[in-house]
Every structure is written in structure tokens, then in C-alpha cells.
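Bumping my old thread because nobody answered last time. Still need a sequence for this structure:
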């Protein structure tokens, strides 16, 4: 059944997350990107044979509500149709499955089920909350709303995923449209906004990028990837007065040759290279600063270096459950170099 049970499911009650109590709790569980489930013709009855696939693996993408019931249980016959009705209304925000506690006593024991009906909500392979008894529809919805992503959040996540697929296929127009839709659907989705602003900058649409970035500018300093975008835009803005980039590079290289500790010149060169997409060359100059003065100018070199890593890191490829996606070789190499210098 996987390794999720120890420490999470206890005898004598519903297993819940660290910050929740069964049937109560105030905050939503942190989530990443849940994929809405499509409508089904029939309810899924879970057994020990399909528990891993239908509950554990499914909950890695979509919240799964497990209804423990039995054919002889009167209250189970009351709440069962209500749960199915709510699942249909929530249109893919969660997946409902049923476990016959008489037939699947091993599963019931693992969850510490002592009375039925009992419902347990799982996310990312872990039970996070639950309730016992035939709650009315309003209380069921209130329970779910504490934890489930809102419909607009799911819409934004789906649009962003489709945008990344379009980018992988080279269709920047479709990707741009989908990212714009994602940000409109969920303005709080910083990942979608990051991808949108990044794409606009890559297309040379700096003014549009600044408009898209404006709603989050106040919090950018506290969100690393947003801060990275802001540093990239600042590097591009710093080149507004540069008429001949090649001549500017030659001038800065001359200053550095005359004085290897001319950090202002090195940083100006790194910013120019950053602005024009010469990623590794820019990081090489920043490393030269860090090797000589790790804390130069309030950690400016290191923060700019990290910004470049954030900008160039591609989306993680999809891999099989339990596998770690490979890291981009350039990002991996330059991360190691930064660690080596900073920790030396």
C-alpha cells in the first residue's frame, strides 16, 4: 500500500495531517498542481488490489475523498448520494472513491476506522483530514473547501500546463495566449505569471512584460523567482543607453584587465551579458566577483547569479512516480560552481 501509513493513520480515529484535527482545521493544505478528474459513469469501489492506483497515486495529482461504508449501514445510505452529488458539482476538484469496510477490513484497520460512515481526504499520498458521520451537504462542502483548490486555480494550472506543452512544441503564440489566460483566471498563480513574464521578455516585449509583472512588483523582493525576473528586467533596462554593445563589452573588459578587482566593471559586464542572453558568460563574471568578495555590494553578485539560474532553468520533465526528474546539465553545473565558491 505504499509507505504513507506510519505516522499518518492511527488506531481509533481518522489519520490527519500535522496541523489538522479530524473534521476541523482552519488552513488549506499546501498544494502544487492538481489535475482535475474527468466525469465518470460509475463510482469507483476500492479494494486492496487497486488501492495504490486509485487512491495513493491518484492523490498525487487530485485530492481523493475515501468514503468508508458498509451495505448494512443506514447513515452510509444517506451520505453516499450526497457525496456523489457534491463530487458532480465540484466538477473534478476532487475524486470520490468508496471502500466497503466489511469486505476490506485490512484497509479499514490501517486507517483506524471504528465507526462508519467515515470519510478521509488524501493529498499527495497522505491523509490530511477527515470526518465521521452523515454530515449534511453544507458541512461536507465546508470541509472540502478548507482543502481543495478553487475552480479558477485549477483552470489556471491547466492553462499553464498546456502552455508549457506548446512551448516544448515551439508554438510560442499558443503558449503566450494560454499563459495570459492562466494569469487572468488566477492572478495569485505566481508560477504562471513567472512563465508569462519570462516568455514576453524572451520575445522582446519588455513593455508588455512590465505590465504583466506590475501586479506582483510589491511582493517581488520576498518571492525568489519574481525577484529573479525583476533583476533580469533591470539588467535589460541598464542597456538602454548602450548604443554599441560590442564596444561596451570591450571597454569593460579593458577595465577588468587593468584591475581584476574592478567589481563595478565586472558586474556591469555581467548585467550586459545577462541582458543579451549570454547566460554562462554572465555567471562566469559573477563567479569572478564571488571568488574575490562573497558579500560584495550586499550580496548583489550571488543574488544576480541565482536570478540567471532561475531564468534559464527549464520546466521539469514528467517522469514516472517515484523517480526524480533530471536536472538541466547547465543549471546543475553552475549550481555546483556557485556552491563550491560560496562554501569555500
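Sorry it took so long. Here it is:
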Amino acid at each position: 500500500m505504499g509507505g504513507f501509513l506510519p505516522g499518518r493513520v492511527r488506531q481509533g480515529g481518522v489519520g490527519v495531517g500535522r496541523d489538522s484535527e479530524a473534521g476541523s482545521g482552519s488552513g488549506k493544505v499546501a498544494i502544487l498542481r492538481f489535475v482535475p478528474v474527468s466525469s465518470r459513469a460509475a463510482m469507483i469501489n476500492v479494494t486492496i488490489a487497486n488501492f495504490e492506483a486509485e487512491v495513493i497515486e491518484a492523490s498525487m495529482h487530485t485530492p481523493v475523498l475515501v468514503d468508508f461504508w458498509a451495505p448494512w449501514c443506514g447513515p452510509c445510505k444517506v451520505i453516499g448520494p450526497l457525496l456523489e452529488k457534491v463530487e458532480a458539482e465540484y466538477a473534478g476538484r476532487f475524486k470520490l472513491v468508496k471502500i466497503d469496510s466489511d469486505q476490506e477490513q485490512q484497509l479499514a484497520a490501517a486507517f483506524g476506522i471504528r465507526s462508519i460512515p467515515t470519510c478521509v481526504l488524501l493529498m499527495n499520498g497522505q491523509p490530511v483530514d477527515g470526518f465521521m458521520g452523515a454530515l449534511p451537504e453544507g458541512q461536507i462542502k465546508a470541509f472540502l473547501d478548507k482543502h481543495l483548490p478553487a475552480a479558477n486555480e485549477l483552470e489556471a494550472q491547466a492553462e499553464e500546463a498546456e502552455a508549457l506543452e506548446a512551448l516544448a512544441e515551439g508554438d510560442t503564440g499558443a503558449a503566450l495566449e494560454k499563459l495570459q489566460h492562466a494569469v487572468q483566471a488566477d492572478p495569485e498563480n505566481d508560477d504562471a505569471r513567472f512563465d508569462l513574464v519570462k516568455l514576453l521578455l524572451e520575445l522582446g516585449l519588455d513593455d508588455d512584460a512590465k505590465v504583466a509583472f506590475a501586479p506582483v512588483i510589491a511582493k517581488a523582493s520576498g518571492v525568489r523567482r519574481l525577484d529573479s525576473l525583476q533583476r533580469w528586467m533591470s539588467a535589460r533596462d541598464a542597456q538602454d543607453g548602450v548604443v554599441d554593445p560590442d564596444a561596451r563589452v570591450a571597454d569593460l573588459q579593458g577595465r577588468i584587465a587593468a584591475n581584476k578587482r574592478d567589481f563595478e566593471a565586472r558586474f556591469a559586464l555581467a548585467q550586459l551579458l545577462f541582458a543579451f542572453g549570454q547566460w554562462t558568460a554572465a555567471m562566469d563574471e559573477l563567479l569572478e566577483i564571488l571568488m574575490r568578495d562573497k558579500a560584495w555590494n550586499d550580496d548583489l553578485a550571488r543574488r544576480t547569479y541565482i536570478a540567471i539560474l532561475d531564468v534559464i532553468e527549464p520546466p521539469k520533465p514528467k517522469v514516472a512516480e517515484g523517480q526524480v526528474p533530471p536536472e538541466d546539465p547547465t543549471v546543475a553545473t553552475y549550481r555546483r560552481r556557485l556552491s563550491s565558491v560560496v562554501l569555500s
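Residues 1-36 have pLDDT under 50 and may be disordered. Let me know if any region looks off to you.
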